Amino acid sequence: MVWLAPKAGRNGRPPVLSDAAIQFCLMVKVLFGLPLRQTTGMVASILSMAKLDWPVPDFSTLSRRQKTIAVQITQRRAPGPLNLLVDSTGIKFLGE
């Protein structure tokens, strides 16, 4: 996954984080039913557990960019736990 945004040749301040990074944060938000401020904390914890020194999007960045990115997640059917695996190959969500 490309976490940092590529250089854009447009006017204005370029985005720091890629759409994939924002979509990952929004997926964590939807899957765990978290508010945006708690989502940033959880993503920071996931990145620190993976020993990655990547910037975490703040509340205002997520709030602004969630309007333009559609997160495609089906409804969870099982009320049971959701397993989140973090290893050297990336982050995996396991469960139904």
If you had to describe this structure to a student in words, what would you say it looks like?
Helices cover 36% and strands 10% of the residues. The chain has 96 residues and is an alpha+beta fold. It has one domain. The chain has a two-stranded antiparallel sheet with strand order 1-2. A hairpin with a 2-residue loop joins strand 1 and strand 2 (90-94). Helix 1 packs across helix 2. The protein is globular, with a radius of gyration of 14 Å.
Short description:
The protein has 96 residues and is an alpha+beta fold.
Q: Cα-atom Rg, whole angstroms?
A: 14 Å
* Amino- and carboxy-terminal Cα gap: 23 Å
SSE string, helix = H, strand = E? HHHEE
Biggest sheet architecture: 2 strands, antiparallel
What's the shape? globular
Number of helices: 3
Strand content: 5-15%
Q: What's the mean pLDDT score?
A: 79
Please report the total strand number as a whole number.
2
Which consecutive residue ranges, at least 5 long each, have pLDDT under 50?
none
In which range does the helix fraction lie? Answer: 25-40%
How many structural domains does the protein architecture include? 1
Biggest β-sheet: strands ordered side by side in the sheet: 1-2
What class, by secondary structure content?
alpha+beta
